[in-house]
Design goal:
- The chain has 207 residues and is an all-alpha fold.
- Helices cover 76% and strands 0% of the residues.
- The chain contains ten helices and no strands.
- It has helices spanning 4-11, 17-23, 25-44, 49-67, 80-101, 103-106, 112-145, 152-160, 164-167, 176-206.
- Helix 7 crosses helix 10 (176-206).
Amino acid sequence: MVIDLPQKFQVVNGDSAFKAGYRLQALLLSFSLAAIVSSVLTEKKRVPPIYTLFVAASLQILGLALITTLSTTNHDFPPAQYGYQIIMGFCFGLSISTLIMTINLVVTQQDGAVTMGAIARARTMGGSIGISICTNLLNNHIKDGLKRHLAKQYIDALLASASTIERTLPAQLPPRGDVLGGVSDVGTEAKEDTAAREGVIGVGLMG
């Protein structure tokens, strides 16, 4: 989401890079707030971590599903987006912080530093792998979804740089709104697929 949302804000909503980053603050601030809540629940209230993680996973699926309900035809920034970002940011912060604080339950104190380093490395590697997978899935969706709007050379140029929409698309092609609608549609489809997979995985884990 930290990669996908700013890209969408720039391509679909026409925001500058600075404004796209500013619009992401709702997700980032709620992430920090969730870390505090997780600390209170785990350390002070002694809530079992499995319950906290279950709530975080449920909120993640909910937030992702809600984002897919946003209109793909209206290219103005929807205020509801902030609320959905808060839900997702809260679940991200809640899950990561809870997992980190449960280290002492599975390793000895002398191995704590090594474990923290391993977690930091795993998060970086997992994020890189996740971005690679999601980028490939999105690119495949874009190629399939924009075939009816653009020729192959323009789709390839769009995948190389989102600014292609403004700089290189000739006037005789479909209106810019149609292209933006296509990009928004395929982005929504990709998020729907992700939410569905997360739901299936969650049900499987509960079983």
